[in-house]
Amino acid sequence: MLQLDQLSLNIPDTTKPRVVVIGGGFGAVNLTKNLPSDQFQVVMLSKQNYHGFWPLLYQVATAGLEPESIGEPIRKLFDDHSDFHFRFVRVTGIDPVAKTVSTLIGSVRYDYLVIATGTKSNYFGNKEIEQNAFGLKHLTDAVNLRSQLLQSFEQANLTQDPALRQGLLNIVIAGAGPTGVELAGSLAEMRQHVLPKDYPNLDFRQMNIYLVDGLDRVLPPMSPEASQHAHGYLLKLGVNIKLNKLVDSYDGTTVRFKDGEEIPTQTLVWAAGVTGATIEGLPAETVERGRYLVNDFNQILGYTDIFAIGDVAVMKSDKWPKGHPQVAQPAIQQGTLLAENLVRQRRNEAWKHFDYFDKGSLAIVGRARAVADLPGKHTLSGFIAWIAWLFVHIYYLVGFRNKLIVLTNWAYRLFTYQRGTRIIIQPYINDHDKVGQEFARQQAID
User: Fold this and answer.
1) In which order are the strands placed within the sheet that holds 287-288?
2) 140, 246: one domain
């Protein structure tokens, strides 16, 4: 294994303006796609070597899709860009005076810097929850959660202790936004159609799925009508909804709420909030609530050559006083416009201000159950919204192979209800999971 001092970023010199992009999400990809290689050198730095379609993470976690089907290698996306250079590294800092970005293996100079790092889970300073709960922000999170869920069912099938079995079958999801709602609905359908066949000796009427939120309704970012429909769908699927409820602590075996209620569980999924994945080096006044303050050109306040796009940026306006929603569309549109503006800069043309076109919001709750808020304050629900959700997600998946695989998986599940990736690749264990530790030990003996 090479040592860090034996490595370097190895970026070729150039006479063209160098655009350094940190991140590989929707904003970064759409920015890079629209920067012509004959005018710019693009250097992309990311701690993941793939672009992931995060809206489908919950389907990986519930064994509906393979991890590779929602990811595409970044290098493959830009193999036709002659002056694009990807480096699989973690960024450690920014020096705006020297105009450099630092990594663990060296630094790189920039003419323009674009921060497109997205978000990370926000545990609101609760280290115990951060240590013991399962996030759902990256593919590794989804695979870990899938392993945990499948292990829990395996262990519940083996144990003779009713209390331990109940803790293994209880699943608590903190956060009733789109991620929490979609995960709860997917687990409920899995409980109804898949698990009883896999484990005929288990009574899955004892499996409880709790969806918890501190606010007074599910899907708070969407319209009250969409929220009401989603609430009804979840109840029909047998999901236990607990609103105006705040998680106080979680030690790996018991969720405790602020009002004193406790639920024994070995699986707490944390979908209760996100914060921007900011980077050391810029002044504290450029950040508000974990996001970079930007103007309507996406320039970070106080800088003309440093930009933030997507979830990590907050662009305030009369229409969006708290900034744009942290979903894919603002990132896609901001990345595309920023690329166009950098080209305009080369032509000495005036830049265009960003004006977000809200294409609406979608959330799926289960088979033929979905809600959609469309432009013009129109709301759809049921089968029509479900079809719209399917179309939109296939359309925005990157790569023909991924589109084909996901579409095939969905068609297979439509007729069979089956989920073909119910495999435990690597047992997930924590300090409180004694049964899981023994399970992993037995696997290691083999």
Assistant:
1) 287-288, 291-293, 313-314
2) yes
- Higher local confidence (pLDDT), 418 or 231: 231
**pLDDT band (50, 70, 90) for residue 433:** low
CA atoms within 13 A of residue 273's CA, in its CB half-sphere: 15
Cβ neighbours, 10 Å, residue 102: 18
Instruction: Name the pTM for this structure.
Output: 0.90
Contact 21, 53 (CB under 8 A): no
Rounded to an integer, the average pLDDT of 71-81 is 92
**Dihedral over Cα of 359, 136, 255, 366: its sign:** positive
Weakest mean pLDDT among 197-201, 237-241, 352-356, 392-396: 392-396
Identify whether residues 135 and 188 lie together within a single domain.
yes
Rg of the chain on CA atoms, in Å: 23
Q: What is the DSSP letter of 17?
A: P
Question: Distance from CA of residue 260 to its chain's centroid?
Answer: 31
* DSSP character at residue 353: P
- Shared-domain flag, residues 418 and 299: no
Rounded CA-CA distance 381/358 in Å is 19
Q: Are 118 and 398 in contact (CB under 8 A)?
A: no
SS3 of the chain: helix, strand, coil, percent, to 5: 35, 25, 40
The DSSP bridge partners found for residue 364 are 370
pLDDT digits (tens, 9 = 90+) for 259-315: 999 999 999 999 998 899 999 999 999 999 999 999 999 999 999 999 999 999 999
pLDDT of residue 240: 98
Range of the domain at 428: 127-272+367-438
Residue 80, token pair as written in the block = 């036709």
Nearest to 324 by CA among 315, 333, 312: 315
Label residue 257 by pLDDT band (50, 70, 90): very high
**Domain annotation covers residue 255:** yes
Retrieve residue 343's tokens. Answer: 């080209």
Question: Taking the CA of residue 163 as centre, how many other CA atoms within 13 Å lie in the half-sphere pointing to its CB?
Answer: 4
Q: Give the pairing of strands 41-46 and 50-52.
A: unpaired
Domain with residue 25: its CATH number is 3.50.50.60
Tokens linked to 45? 């730095």
Looking at the annotation, which residues are catalytic? Answer: 182
β-sheet bridge partners, residue 22: 45, 115
- Does 112 fall in a domain? yes
Report the alpha-carbon distance of residue 423 to residue 420 in Å, rounded. Answer: 8
Torsion of Cα atoms, 243 then 365 then 204 then 193, to 10°: 170
- Retrieve residue 286's tokens: 């450029």
Q: In this structure, is residue 267 part of a structural domain?
A: yes
